Amino acid sequence: MSKKQAEAGLAGMIMVGNPLEPWPQYKDELKQVNLVLSQSYISVDGKFEQMIGTSSQNNYSANGTAYTDGWQKRVNGQMNPIIRFRPGETQVLNMGQFGARGATNFVIADDNLQNPWNATILARDGASAFVHPYNVTLSASELRMQDVSALTVLSPGNRMSMAVTAPTTPGTYYFMDGWGGEESRNNDSGKGYYYVLATLVVEGDAVTTEAPVFAPQEADPLWKETPDVVRTFSLEQLGTIDGVDPDTGAPIINIDNFYVNGKKFGYGVMPQLEIGTVEEWTILNAGPLNHPFHIHQGVFIVTKINGFPIEPDKKFPNANAANYVSPLDVIMVPAFGSVTIRFRALDFPGKYVFHCHILEHEDEGMMSPVFQHGNTEGLRLALGTTAQSTVVVNGKGNTVGEIKAFPNYRGPVATASGIGTSTEPDQAPPLGGTAEEINAYFRSKYTPETMAFGTGSKASWVRVYENGALKPTATFRAFAGKAGVGGVSLAVGALGPQGTVNIAVGSRTAGPANVRLFDTKGMLVREFKGVLPGRFPNGVNVAVGDVDADNYDDIIVSAGAGREAIITALSGRDIADGVANPEKIFTFVAGGGAKEGVKVAVGYVAPSTVPSYKPNLVTTAEVGRNAGTISVWNIDDIVGESHSMPMGGGMSMGGGMSMGGGMSMGGGMSMGGGMSMPNDMPSTDEPPMPVATFRPFGAKRGAVNLATTYQRQLGGQAQAVVAAWQTPREVAFTAIGLDNKPQTVKRRF
Ligand SMILES: [Cu+2]
């Protein structure tokens, strides 16, 4: 659990670059001091306690000493260190809040809370571009202390660079937290406490040079963007009854349940973002605790706090929360309040998370996975059939070209496409450009999918079309001689070093279940022999996807016609690590006739799936009476015994009771929102059932070709779909609803 790790000291600061980069004239002039703020977890008499000599029970006692003892904070691991200034000297304090919890709101004043220092907040959360420094007097102002969104607040995970200027007269001053170590001034226990973090000694010769002036840069061009997708997330806390006290018969109430949209991590719908688009999210907090919202893989601008719009070119001297300083990656969502943020889905294909940065809340479920897929313009769906010419479609539903990969070949053409790590050159945005130019740059910065075409019979030729190309970039023979006479099946995915694109090639020749892995230049990377037991009259099919959710793409291998629908998955992590026999994540038979074989695809197509960060397996019989029927599976139903619950055991529901609707509990906390049981607890004996089954071409005979992709079918937001086709010019795109009902749209190309 991250809370215990951070409290035990597993958190720190890494300085990248120089906060004075935007003002090079001061880079060598001003002294910089790095301050790591933490709340540590120390062993007392061999017993781990939250703080020296106290237990967490004492934290909230009426006795002020016990309260502040329980919330002791450290600066660079020290209690109350001394920082020295010369009279009139300006130093830059680079700070971060690296404790598991406990926000701060800063005051610098003397021991009577008088003679406050002036400060300039240079940037927050490590921003070095689009910064608007904000001047503030670090007085014990009740207005600022009551404002949980004040720019001087550092919540867990926040960083801030602040220039502070010492008075011209020598003396002793204090760098203080005006919240007494709590997470808000508004908590009763925090009221009136000014907790000393460091002592500031002003002594020596006065500095006579003029105080620095930090000119603002341009505001983030995101202010001039129009969001493509608008979403709302609600952060919730809810009590549950975890059984009954055997002695008293009283219910055991557990208030440590935290949710996003009523679900713990992995139980809700995973947002899927299109790279190159702009998202605007409103984060609601209906509860009594502040929640610092943090998202990985990028920064956002805060456009509203509690519905009040922030305007980057205006100053609001009496409401410093409403002022723009820089892009952020942590923002406190005030109790009973909201924030609205705007950000770009950058060229990072794959998964990351957002979560509350109070680590206990995150550990107890207030976290969600996020998946970023390729830009729809750069997606490639190649409709391989027995036709000579193959239509290629993008994610906007447009034909991008037709490819005759093998002019002298007659037979089925295997096609596949996929994406790896960003291949965009590491190029800085045109910082000198206009907002429109910078926004256009980010919208065009995406990695297109790589396609592979193969001969599905007769010989084992493969052509690669790298990064969206419509002309081949490499050609190779995957299996030579007799081993290659049956052709190939193909899959493309992030199986190379650092997640670069590789091509998985299944043998379609009668014999053992052999699979080879090639790089995009056609160099053999690895070979897997006899992946499934026995002989395969028509070889095997392959797919690629992260079926065990470890952020490594895995290789899925399934039987071709002539065998039962047996499927296995080889661990991509083991493949990347060079393990001789990669672990088999699962092996199961998808049902159907004894000789029907099975085609496979992997994608996040059923949004009700739990855990939501695992993709679905999609299957269809290769031949036989079930041909034409597509099944969508929850992989955890298949994995069975090794069924993994999200977050260390998941939800402890006791009697399965939940309490909603503003019930007042213990410390006067009101719990809002709802929750539900995970919707698909695996049964032990019965064979797994698909979550959805459909025939996209109705009663029409014959097998379908299968892929997963994204489509903006009606001009709206891109949707994860199952693509199926029987002929080269007609595709059925099927989206699965939250109720697991499939909805098919057919398109002719
Ligand atoms: Cu929280």
Describe this structure in words.
The protein has 749 residues and is mainly beta. It has 3 domains: 2-202, Cupredoxins -  blue copper proteins (Immunoglobulin-like, Sandwich); 221-373, Immunoglobulin-like, CATH 2.60.40; 376-643 and 692-748, Neuraminidase (6 Propeller). Helix content is 6%, strand content 37%. It contains 8 helices and 52 strands. A 6-stranded mixed beta sheet has the order 4-1-6-11-8-9, with no helix packed on it. A 6-stranded mixed beta sheet has the order 17-14-19-24-21-22, with no helix packed on it. The longest helix is centred in the middle third of the chain and has 10 residues, at 435-444. It starts with a helix and ends with a strand. Residues 289, 291, 356, 358, 361, 366 line the site of copper (II) ion (CU).
How do the helices and strands line up, and which of them pair or pack?
Layout (H helix, E strand, L loop, with lengths): L1 H6 L23 E8 L3 E3 L2 E3 L14 H7 L3 E2 L6 E4 L4 E8 L6 E6 L8 E7 L9 E4 L4 H4 L7 E2 L4 E7 L5 E7 L17 E8 L26 E9 L2 E5 L6 E4 L3 E3 L11 E3 L3 E8 L5 E5 L4 E6 L2 E2 L20 E4 L3 E8 L5 E7 L2 H5 L3 E7 L7 E2 L7 E4 L5 E5 L9 E6 L16 H10 L5 E6 L5 E5 L8 E4 L10 E6 L8 E6 L7 E5 L4 E5 L11 E6 L8 E6 L6 E5 L1 H5 L7 E6 L8 E6 L12 E6 L8 E5 H5 L6 H4 L7 E2 L4 E3 L3 E3 L20 E3 L10 E7 L7 E9 L2 E7 L5 E7 L1
Bound molecules: copper (II) ion.
The site of copper (II) ion has 6 residues, from loops.
